Amino acid sequence: MSLLLKCPDPDCHHALTCHSGGDVIARHNKLRDCFANLCSKACLSPQLEKGPGIDFSRPADVLVPNWSLSNPAAFDLKVIHPLNTGLILEASWPQATLQRSDQGKWIQNWYADDSACTAKLSNLKVWFLKLCELGPDYGYHPEPKKTVLVVRATEEAEAKALFGELGVKIVHGHRFLGGFIGEEEDVHAFVLEKIKTWTSGVGVLAEAAELYPQAAFGALSKSLQFQWSYLQRMVPNCESSFENLSNALNDIFWPALFQGTVSDSEKKLFSLPACHGGLGISRSSINSCIFHCKFKKMYSSYS
Question: pLDDT by residue (tens digit) across 175-221?
Fold first, then answer.
């Protein structure tokens, strides 16, 4: 006798949103308590389940009596599954209206109140005009003069004919969500400019490491390295551009931090996580391809 079991919810959408058993309530309360604890550390004297909430139908999850200029602030928290697009769209107007009316003509992307869309130019204009029409009803006011249209050089004439009267800025490349969209040489120039800034930052931390080694290492491990690792996740095939940054770490920062020569084997050890005896500083020129491949694999299952 054989038995084949198949998980009906492999992405755990139901498990993360089901109200049965009180898990969602427990997660909500832990999140509420965590937020209240942060407010307490900021000396804001938060109160739980006090005062009018956002919609005045129930108490606020967290009430801060003196938030700004002696005015109170009420915070309500909601637990959702961030990868369940259906739940997100319920509260994402006019995004949801455009999503339902697209009929496969465009693919839109939203990050907070920043909207983006990819489509044929004719369909793209339809989308943008709909956004300008629907947005104000929900407090969203698109500004054509602050809007950027990225096109290939061969499509520039058509783009100007369609969008010229709207005042949209037409370019061949532009930054987008920490990365860059455009021709390969423009992407390369964007990455090099970022690396130049980070290399300079590593030099500054190396100078600080001579007197304040712990503070310098903390700034590198907890802040600076995550800036370039994010770029590596967003931009493919950029590992060769990180050679100067890698040299700055190996030849300037590590010797300054340890006040002496650092061997190649020690540098490799530093790239390991702390649980494996390392320092958790990724090797920028090697991990670029790995970060991007993992990022694509992680999100491909939700596309």
Answer: 888 888 888 888 889 999 999 999 999 999 999 999 999 999 999 98
Please spell the DSSP secondary structure of 187-221, one letter per residue: HHHHHHHHHHHHHHHHHHHHHHHTT-HHHHHHHII
Look up residue 83 and give its amino acid: L
Straight-line distance from the first to the last Cα atom of the chain, in angstroms, rounded to the nearest whole number: 37
Nearest to 76 by CA among 94, 50, 96, 95: 50
Dihedral sign of CA atoms 21, 24, 30, 32 in order:
negative
Name the phi and psi angles at 240, rounded to 5.
Answer: -65, -25
Query: Among all chains, which residue has been given the structure tokens 């938030």?
Result: 67
* Residue among 207, 232, 213, 210 nearest 282 (CA): 232
Q: Cβ distance 45 to 63 under 8 Å?
A: no
Structure tokens at 66: 């003196």
Looking at residue 254, its amino acid is W
What's the rounded Cα separation, in Å, for the pair 58 and 52? 6
User: Is residue 127 a contact partner of residue 119, using CB atoms and an 8 Å limit?
Assistant: yes
Q: What is the pLDDT of residues 38-87, one digit of tens each?
A: 988 888 889 998 876 554 556 888 988 888 767 888 888 877 665 554 44
Give the span between the Cα atoms of 299 and 40, in whole angstroms.
36
**Is this structure's pTM higher than 0.85?**
no
3 state SS of 64: strand
Question: From CA 106, how far away is CA 123, in angstroms rounded?
Answer: 7
